[in-house]
Amino acid sequence: MIKICFVCSGNTCRSIMAERLMKKMLKDRKIEDIKVSSRGLNATGENITSHAKQVLKEFKAISSNRKSIKLGKIDRNTLYITMTSDQKSKIKSKNVVSFNELIGFDIADPYGLDFQTYKKTAKELIQGINVLIEKLELWRQ
């Protein structure tokens, strides 16, 4: 079993969207041995944002409410994927990769911005998740 945890600032936009988009993508590809979660460096128990829910619904991913969860103890058997290089530097683990390393750019925070910005963010996340899944499939061969 491979464990992936997406990490952003508040766990109300980017990381929860990444988690739910990847779960859908894995299900579509019939990949069952990867467990996906998400956390926030500064999460305070807020709900997923309404625009994030809307985007997830549009991409046919799970769009139900969930309270944000703060990143706690680091599990040495989990691969952490951060939205930015700066966030990567705040996680004390050898198993951390940023989206910048996967696709060449950070995933900007859409919090407080319009629906189209969230949709753009989701497309960037999908691009990075596709690269991640390809790398995981190569690694498992």
Could you characterize what this model shows?
- The chain is an alpha/beta fold.
- It has a single domain (2-130), classed as Response regulator (Rossmann fold), CATH 3.40.50.
- The protein has helices at residues 14-28, 50-58, 85-89, 99-103, 115-140; strands at 2-8, 34-40, 78-82, 96-98.
- α1 (14-28) packs parallel to α2 and α1 packs across α5.
- Share in helix: 40-55%
What is the rounded Rg? 14 Å
Biggest sheet overview: 4 strands, parallel
Describe the global form: globular
Query: Any idea what the CATH architecture is?
Result: 3-Layer(aba) Sandwich
Spell the H/E element sequence. EHEHEHEHH
Q: What structural class results from the helix and strand content?
A: alpha/beta
Instruction: Tell me the CATH topology.
Output: Rossmann fold
Helix-strand layout with pairing:
Blueprint: E1 2-8, H1 14-28, E2 34-40, H2 50-58, E3 78-82, H3 85-89, E4 96-98, H4 99-103, H5 115-140
Parallel strand pairs: 1-2, 1-3, 3-4
Helix pairs in contact: 1-2, 1-5, 2-5
Brief account:
The chain is an alpha/beta fold and 141 residues long. Helices cover 43% and strands 16% of the residues. The chain has a single domain (2-130), classed as Response regulator (Rossmann fold, 3-Layer(aba) Sandwich).
